[in-house]
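Example record

The entry below shows one chain as it appears in the dataset: sequence first, then structure tokens.
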Amino acid sequence: MTPRDIEIMVEAARAEQDRDWQYRDALNGKLCATIAEPYRDKDQHPDPFTAADFMIMPKDQVEKQTVQEPQEMIDEQIRKSISTMKNWVATTGGKHG
């Protein structure tokens, strides 16, 4: 295994962790918005709560990104994993060690 092979694997692992974190953050944000909505003071907060109101990621970053539905995130993760494997096979010829 070459240093580039290791670098590709590390990049893939980091990307997977980022996607997992974003997915969990979005999911928790949606859950919190759903729970808080019936208790919203409609005079003080005329607009309904959104997932972005409760997400850990800074709100300006959330608004720049689209919060994907879970199935869309799974499909994207599968596409990226396949792409990573294709890169690995192209780089190594599919041989271990």
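Notes for this example: Helices lie at 3-36, 59-64, 70-92. The chain has one domain: 3-87.
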